[in-house]
Design goal:
The chain is α+β, with helices and mostly antiparallel strands. It has two domains: 22-187, no CATH class; 201-584, Glycosyltransferase. It is built from 13 helices and 28 strands. The strands form eight sheets. An eight-stranded antiparallel beta sheet has the order 5-6-7-8-15-12-11-10. The protein starts with 21 loop residues before the first strand and ends with a helix.
Length: 587
């Protein structure tokens, strides 16, 4: 009986490569068990903050063309194997190897006399969506794009709404699958299969050497999966999409977009590659409206939604300035960063401060990034200490960057004073001896101090009085509070408002990342290491998902969540955090 061995299982992360919109995936909620495994050629050209338009519980448009291995007219049971560079689809009679050798095309090769059957999903009006171009190639509808099948060896024909590639006299099939947004035409030359593998290997191995040069042995296996996840979710500007710079997408299918506040965190997650970490931070400002609001997410289909996420770009910029000499960056990039950051900061001051006190409020839960945080029950406009801590850091970053690029010192001093005033107001409004609270600025009602999310205000570090830092740490780590065997719970488990969720009790990547950094900034690196190692061990055991159960460490949401997908895929957000923790907080 065949069994599949995987470097990364396509059930956890569809097989792809940096810059490509072609993926290879199993069936939704499938299995790699012999007799159950399926393989689909899939497209990731779908929407940004939740997939394609339509019903959130409807079927995903991700999987487009089913692949089967055929002998004597019979589709054979298969399993698959993966390396960082190839997916091998194997039946008892042989195998076909797949490699996405170029951003725009994949190639497959088989030498065992097997035929390849390709069955596209029905297109408009139930039609197969296959067009014979009468030059040996076939065009197939591929979601919002087109896929050209161009055989290099073997003979392809259409039969009953599907394509079959029969082997040549030597038992060989060799097929190129090229994605197009306009009418396709076969290239004069494609890389050979071996050239495809060599190209991918050089790209991935070079990326890994830059991004994770010092992974400890205990974290090397999962760490290489994390590198591969970040690599596969990295977009490359290609002139066909709105992306102007490299960005890191969140995950395949259900959040197939690059989210702005994640780029702010990747600025320190990925800092072993200074050029990449700077570029993803800069990318945050590539989609800003006339008021200065940054788009929540950016996908190949454009910006997603009329909301935004928290202003953590200042935190990312301060990290960059603390660890690198950014004065060596191109002047136009520094000016672009400053202008974007200033407009983003002024957006909050001009459009999210209804009472004019210099503390901004969110107008809906989506803007907080903590959509089901327990304090959302207060209603809106809602002011929070963590959100305003990000803004205070951003104001400070403007002062520091202004000095780097030579802005008038009166302007820099004004931003510096504004940051200090914001911090003073945060303490006045949100700190209590029982912990940090949020407040509805209209009703003046305050939340219970049970949400760990609000403690991200500790990112202010020694800008806060020592007694507030000490009491906050006491409250986080006191018996029965937030610390679990697997990391920090986002809501106290003994709180009446605890219910797992996204950030109302579960372990979420940004909570672990921001609190670990906050504890370090507060002078408690030993606590940062403690939390980081717990989270690393959780991810080692249960996978690079961005939501885990606080009681057993397992992945949360193992039932259909968005677009009918039966589980989450691996998260670029979490993979970046894993690399940051493994490199920074382990011996």
């Amino acid at each position: 009986m065949l069994t599949g061995k995987t470097f990364v299982d396509p059930l956890e992360m569809p097989f792809s490569r940096r810059g490509s919109y072609i993926s290879l995936a199993n069936q939704n909620g499938g299995s790699n068990q012999f007799g159950k495994s399926q393989l689909w050629i899939s497209t990731s050209r779908i929407g940004g903050s939740g997939g394609a338009p339509g019903d959130l519980n409807g079927e995903s448009p991700f999987r487009q063309v089913q692949v089967e291995l055929v002998k004597d007219g019979i589709a054979r049971n298969c399993v698959y194997h993966t390396t960082p560079y190839e997916l091998i689809f194997e039946c008892e009679l042989g195998a076909v190897r797949f490699c996405i050798g170029d951003y725009k095309y994949a190639r497959c090769r088989g030498t065992d006399g097997l035929s390849l059957r390709l069955t596209p999903k029905p297109g408009m009006f139930g039609m197969a969506g296959i067009t014979n171009l009468h030059d040996g190639t076939f065009k197939v509808t591929f979601g919002s794009a087109l896929l050209l099948f161009a055989p290099e060896r073997g003979a392809m024909k259409e039969t009953g709404g599907r394509l079959e590639l029969a082997p040549d006299e030597d038992g060989v099939i060799d097929l190129v699958m090229e994605e197009w947004l306009i009418d396709p035409k076969r290239r004069e030359r494609y890389m050979s299969y071996d050239e495809c593998v060599a190209n991918v290997k050089a790209d991935f191995d070079g990326f890994a050497a830059r991004l994770a040069p010092n992974l400890p042995e205990k974290y090397r296996e999962r760490g290489m999966q994390a590198v591969w996840t970040v690599w596969g979710l990295t977009v490359i500007p290609d002139g066909e999409t709105p992306y102007k710079r490299r960005m890191i997408k969140m995950m395949r299918v259900i959040f197939e977009g690059a989210f702005s506040w994640q780029q702010g965190m990747h600025a320190f997650f990925l800092s072993h590659d200074p050029d990449l970490s700077w570029e993803v931070l800069l990318s945050s400002f590539d989609v800003q409206d006339a008021n200065g609001r940054i788009a929540d997410s950016l996908a190949s289909a454009g910006a997603g939604g009329a909301t935004m996420k928290p202003p953590v770009q200042g935190l990312g910029l301060l990290w960059q300035m603390e660890h690198f000499d950014i004065s060596k960056k191109p002047k136009d990039e520094l000016e672009y960063m400053y202008d974007g950051l200033e407009r983003w900061t002024n957006f909050y001051l001009n459009f999210r401060d209804v009472d004019g006190d210099g503390i901004f409020e969110n107008q809906n839960a989506g803007e907080t990034g903590w959509e089901d945080g327990s304090y959302q029950r207060l209603g809106f406009p809602l002011a929070c200490p963590d959100m305003n801590a990000y803004l205070a850091l951003q104001e400070e970053a403007l002062a520091k960057l202004g000095r780097v690029i030579g802005r008038d010192e009166s302007v820099n001093a004004a931003w510096e004073k504004k940051s200090k005033d914001t911090i003073a107001k945060i303490i006045e409004l949100f700190w209590t001896e029982n912990g940090w609270v949020a407040m509805n600025v209209i009703t003046k009602e305050k939340s219970e101090p049970t949400s760990l999310l609000l403690y991200c205000a500790l990112l202010l570090g020694d800008r806060l009085p020592r007694h507030i830092i000490d009491r906050s740490i006491e409250l986080i780590f006191e018996s029965g509070a937030y610390e679990t065997k697997f990391g920090l719970a986002s809501e106290r488990p003994d709180s009446p408002r605890f219910h797992h969720g996204w950030c109302s009790g579960s372990l979420g990547t940004p909570v672990q990342a921001l609190l670990a950094l906050a504890l370090e900034y507060c002078g408690h690196r030993e606590l940062s290491k403690r939390i980081a190692v717990k989270y690393l061990d959780t991810l080692n055991e249960h996978g690079l998902y961005h939501i885990h159960n606080p009681f057993d460490g397992s992945m949360e949401y193992q039932t259909p969540m968005f677009f009918g997908e039966r589980s989450l895929f691996l998260s670029g957000w979490t993979a970046g955090c894993y690399l940051f923790f493994a490199e920074r907080y382990t011996d």
